[in-house]
Each structure stands twice: as C-alpha cells, then as structure tokens.
C-alpha cells in the first residue's frame, strides 16, 4: 500500500466520493459536511455523556451521602466498584 501524502491537492472531497480506505481524498477532515447526518446527533449525544471530574461540582455529594439508607449505600458502593473495575480494564488495554 503506498504512503498517502499529508495533503493531496488532487483529491476529491465530495461527500459521495469519500472513502476511509483507498479513496482519493485531500486528507483533510471535513467535520462540518458529513455524509451520514444521523452521525452528527450521535456524536453530540456521546459528547454530552462524557464528563471529567474537573468540570463537575460534586461538593454537595458529601452531605447527600450521609442521608442515604443502608440499601442505597450498598447499591452506590456496588455500582462504584463495578465502574472502577471497567475503567481499570480499559486502562490496562490501552496499547
């Protein structure tokens, strides 16, 4: 397989001609002009479901945790341990 140039001025970026493999693109990402419009909504939903601790104020959680019932605390600890395990598996599988 030949190496693609970083920029291909002879490329064709028309939506109907775009291809991930073996296409003749300019090699520039056209994120505002997509072939599959349903993917835009899906991408936005995935971005809204992503969070990082620095963007989320959880200071009130400490006081709310004290008001949980024993059953709610057991559920909280179980869910938290499960999610921590999933994060560990994902981190260990990063090449």
TrEMBL record:
Q: What is the lineage of its organism?
A: Bacteria, Bacillati, Cyanobacteriota, Cyanophyceae, Oscillatoriophycideae
Write out the GO biological process terms. deoxyribonucleotide biosynthetic process
What Pfam families does this protein's entry cite? Ribonuc_red_sm (PF00268)
User: This chain belongs to which protein, by name?
Assistant: Ribonucleoside-diphosphate reductase
* Gene Ontology molecular function, alphabetical: oxidoreductase activity
Q: Cofactors per UniProt?
A: Fe cation
The protein's matches in SUPFAM superfamilies, at most eight in alphabetical order, are given as: Ferritin-like
């Amino acid at each position: 397989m030949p190496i693609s140039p970083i920029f291909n001025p002879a490329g064709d970026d028309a939506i109907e001609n775009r291809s991930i493999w073996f296409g003749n693109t300019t090699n520039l990402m056209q994120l505002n002009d997509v072939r599959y419009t349903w993917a835009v909504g899906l991408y936005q939903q995935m971005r809204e479901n992503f969070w990082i601790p620095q963007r989320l104020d959880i200071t009130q959680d400490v006081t709310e945790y004290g008001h949980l019932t024993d059953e709610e605390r057991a559920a909280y600890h179980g869910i938290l341990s499960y999610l921590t395990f999933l994060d560990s598996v994902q981190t260990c599988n990063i090449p």
